[in-house]
TrEMBL record:
It is found in: Endoplasmic reticulum; Golgi apparatus. It catalyses: L-seryl-[protein] + GDP-beta-L-fucose = 3-O-(alpha-L-fucosyl)-L-seryl-[protein] + GDP + H(+); L-threonyl-[protein] + GDP-beta-L-fucose = 3-O-(alpha-L-fucosyl)-L-threonyl-[protein] + GDP + H(+). Its EC number is 2.4.1.221. This is GDP-fucose protein O-fucosyltransferase 2. Keywords: Carbohydrate metabolism, Disulfide bond, Endoplasmic reticulum, Fucose metabolism, Glycoprotein, Glycosyltransferase, Golgi apparatus, Signal, Transferase. GO terms for molecular function: peptide-O-fucosyltransferase activity. The lineage of its organism: Eukaryota, Metazoa, Spiralia, Lophotrochozoa, Mollusca. Residues 1-21 form the signal peptide. The keyword Amino-acid biosynthesis does not apply. Pathway: Protein modification; protein glycosylation. GO terms for biological process: fucose metabolic process. InterPro entries: GDP-Fuc_O-FucTrfase, OFUT2-like. Transmembrane segments: none annotated. GO terms for cellular component: endoplasmic reticulum; Golgi apparatus.
Length: 454
């Protein structure tokens, strides 16, 4: 199985690299190739997906990992390529002056790194390969109308009538039209609602047995959960907490989860911007901080190897959290008090703030510090236009991930992603899994330590 998967990835990467040597992406036909270890060559199939429009950037990264590992399992039996859904119209992308649709994954992530895990292709390249602006089948993933049977979880999926109003309609020509990432002429040939209670990996059986289409799209892919990818036994463990359902964490992470996560290396142009800020303002370099990034397939760091730059980093979530989680969000004054204690404990004088707060709140926060130096990253207009709100958020995460000590915000996926980045870099978990407390909390529970597994 490993040989077949490896061949598919190598073959696909070779074709993609060759195609980008020309102005236009060449149409390729992988089924014309053969390989001794693959037996009879099979046509490459394409898996597309989308997520509920209300989900944010960092939850969407989590859904990518679920679907990516589904593609990994599919490649054990036949060649599948994951089509990366263009970014756009996200809730937290508030900059109205920016054109933030049809944003490619290469804007944010290193595609060569992703391809070390599974074959991936940008949506525009997929359209070129197909030779037509079409998705052959869409399955709209939905809950079961009756809920869990007898209140218990069980793996199942069935084609059902649609429960909610779906964002696709059949036109007079019998073509299904809807939102395809801002590409107006794209249509689907077939559409159905699929009620599903399943781990992502278990979608493999459905895709292998129920469709032979060249391209299949899973709409609302967040409906499937990580699961344990057959590496750990009890599905019931994952149902103990809603957080575990969302993030697929149940005491011990699977290696497949972490392989997918480690492959999500930020694009070099964004890392370079963050690294320049670290050097200029925070006296931080990878060599001094022991955070040199190598190929993720070869990088296995022990906890405590990374030292981090001589600063504290803080993710201070405001805006919607001020009412959505008001009991867990500290006032600016109380946040400053906790940061001062961390500075004293770590014998540091610099703080990096990653926050959605406005400039007035940031200046108010700074006013509580007399000796410490407080920084936040402010992008130029050129960087904002080129890399969008998502790129600016990644730069914030990259800088925050390299600090000597990190403290985040209660149940924030933005904080979760920073914690994972620090696990990959090799930080001591005691410096990573921390959060700010509010004045109203009698007991301030700190985040669970979701440690990396190789």
């Amino acid at each position: 199985m490993q040989i077949k998967t490896h061949f598919c990835i190598v073959l696909f990467n070779t074709i993609v690299l060759a195609s980008h040597a020309h102005e236009k992406v060449d149409v390729f036909k992988p089924d014309t190739h053969s390989h001794a270890e693959f037996g009879e060559a099979k046509s490459v199939r394409y898996l597309l997906y989308d997520v509920n429009p209300g989900e944010g950037f960092n939850l969407r990264r989590d859904v990518f990992m679920r679907v990516a590992n589904l593609v990994k399992f599919l490649n054990d039996d036949e060649p599948w390529v994951l089509v990366l859904p263009p970014w756009g119209r996200l809730y937290h992308w508030k900059s109205q002056d920016l054109n933030q649709i049809k944003v490619k994954w290469s804007t944010f992530f290193d595609l060569a790194s992703l391809r070390e895990h599974i074959p991936v292709i940008e949506f525009e390249d997929y359209l070129t390969v197909m030779g037509e602006e079409v998705v052959e089948e869409i399955y709209y993933l939905q809950r079961y109308k009756e809920g869990w049977t007898n209140g218990k979880w069980e793996e199942k999926m069935d084609i059902r009538d649609c429960i909610d109003r779906v964002p696709y309609q059949k036109d007079e020509d019998g073509k299904w039209r809807g939102w395809f990432f801002g590409y107006e002429n794209v249509y689907a040939k077939k559409f159905a609602c699929l009620s599903v209670q399943s781990e992502a990996g278990n979608m493999k059986s459905f895709l292998m047995k129920n469709t032979t289409s060249r391209s299949v799209m899973l709409e609302r892919a967040e409906q499937v959960i990580h699961g344990q990818y057959s590496e750990f036994s009890s599905m019931s463990v994952m149902l103990d907490r809603a957080e575990q359902l969302i993030h697929g964490r149940s005491g011990q992470h699977s290696t497949n989860y972490w392989d997918a996560r480690r492959s999500m290396v930020f694009a070099k142009h964004l890392r370079d911007i963050g690294d320049e800020f670290r050097r200029e303002y925070l006296d931080s370099t990878d060599e001094n901080d022991k955070t040199v990034l190598k190929s993720w397939t070869q990088m296995k760091k022990n906890h405590g190897e990374a030292k981090g730059g001589p600063y504290i980093s803080v993710h201070l979530r405001r805006k919607d959290y001020l009412y959505a989680h008001k009991e867990q969000v500290p006032s600016l004054k109380y946040a400053a008090k906790q940061i001062k204690e961390l500075l004293k404990k770590n014998k540091l004088k610099k703080v990096f703030i990653a926050s959605d707060c406005d400039e007035n709140d940031f200046e108010t926060l700074k006013g509580f510090f007399k000796k410490a130096e407080i920084y936040r990253y402010k992008p130029t207009q050129e960087i904002r236009e080129k890399y969008k709100d998502g790129g600016v958020a990644i730069i914030d995460q990259w800088i925050a991930a390299h600090a000597r000590h990190f403290v985040g915000t209660y149940v924030s996926t933005f904080s979760f992603r920073i914690q994972e980045e620090r696990e990959i870099l090799g930080f001591d978990p005691e410096t990573t899994f921390n959060r700010l407390c509010s004045e109203s909390e009698e007991e301030c529970e700190q985040p669970s330590k979701w440690k990396i597994v190789y």
